[in-house]
Amino acid sequence: MKRLPREERRKRIVLGAMKAFARSGFRGTRSRDLAKAAGVSEALIFKHFPNKRAIQKAIIEERIRQSGRFLSDELRKSPPERALAGIASRILQSSERDPSFLRLLYFAGLEAEPLAPMFFRRRVSRNIDELAGLVRLWIRRGWVRKSVEPRTFAWSFMGCVFQLVVVRTLFGVRRLPGGRGALAALVTDLFLRGILR
Fold first, then answer.
1. Which entry of 16, 74, 98, 119 is 20 to 30 Å from 52 by CA?
2. Local mean pLDDT, 10-residue blocks, the chain (197 residues)
3. Is the pTM higher than 0.85?
4. What is the topology classification, in CATH, of domain 69-195?
5. Residue 131 contacts by C-beta under 8 Å, 6 or more apart in sequence?
């Protein structure tokens, strides 16, 4: 069997670990489970990562790399209706493509593992800052009422979208009316009624 290059082996371990941790949690996953999920030996795992915490850090890096930029240039230039619907649709699509990451974050939070706060600092809080900055721009352009507090709006909107992700991913409610596009449009419409001038 052909030997994989170092970076490919490392990536295989990270992706396998994501699945294993999402299935059994961090405390319930042993090194042999990680090895089996990645299709490598236990020794190879420890050659690449000294411990589970190092694997968690690599998972965060991989997830951030996969997800790319939160707000594209197109979304930044779009009016609120299109921008928010695009954000919601992208988040819903990402969770459909890889539902295991949400399970992994929930396990991390429940087991007090550092992965959840690491991801929050590295990704979620930055996304909130970007969306709040976009809302400030909309206020300056006169599209949104001046009384709207940008960070509160950003947290509320993202929280609503995230709740849809939880309902679909953790509780298996896949058949919400209208599919991803309709859900994104509905959430956007509900929020914009409260903030547009």
1. 98
2. 74 92 90 92 92 88 82 91 92 85 87 87 92 95 92 93 85 70 82 74
3. no
4. Tetracycline Repressor; domain 2 (1.10.357)
5. 70, 71, 87, 150, 153, 154, 157, 158
